[in-house]
Amino acid sequence: MISVYQLKPKFQQMLRPLTNGLAKAGVTANQVTVFAMLLSIATGGVILWKQSLLWFYLLPAVLFLRMALNAIDGMLAREHNQKSKLGAYLNELGDVVSDVALLLPLFILPSVSPWLVGAFIFMAMLVEFVGVVAPMVGKERQYQGPMGKSDRALVLGLLGIILPLWPIVVEYLNYGLVVLVALSVFTMVNRIKVAL
Q: Where are the transmembrane segments (predicted)?
């Protein structure tokens, strides 16, 4: 199933010189992971605090930076001998915490069902959970789409551009959330099937 995640190898190749420079400077994978998580929490917090669609413009830039940081921490761990058990925990927890922090601002949107926002956030966590469970049944960590972490980032980034420009889109967002929840359920089932 097509997913933005499939672009990751080319993205990593572009970031490799920067990653090598960070490694030489003594920056660790865990530091990058924690920074990405704190950045996401701060961004979600600012949007919730300001309660304005204009602040959704932060999302595209922050989500792009977060995806870059996620790629960098992985390369630091794999290519610069920084793998650790703590890093594995931070990586998975950081992703889920960051997703929730950046999705929470959807609750402030007028006319949008909080139940659908909650369902999307819940499914985002479940999708990542079933991906992490795969090694327990003898398979690799699963990343299939169509609504994995990278795909959610793309959708949220697009919303960050569209909503401030065309606030009328909010009136139709419930329909979009139904589709996103359905795609998340499909992604969860897809990952389970592959792992089995």
A: 21-48, 54-76, 115-138, 150-169, 175-192
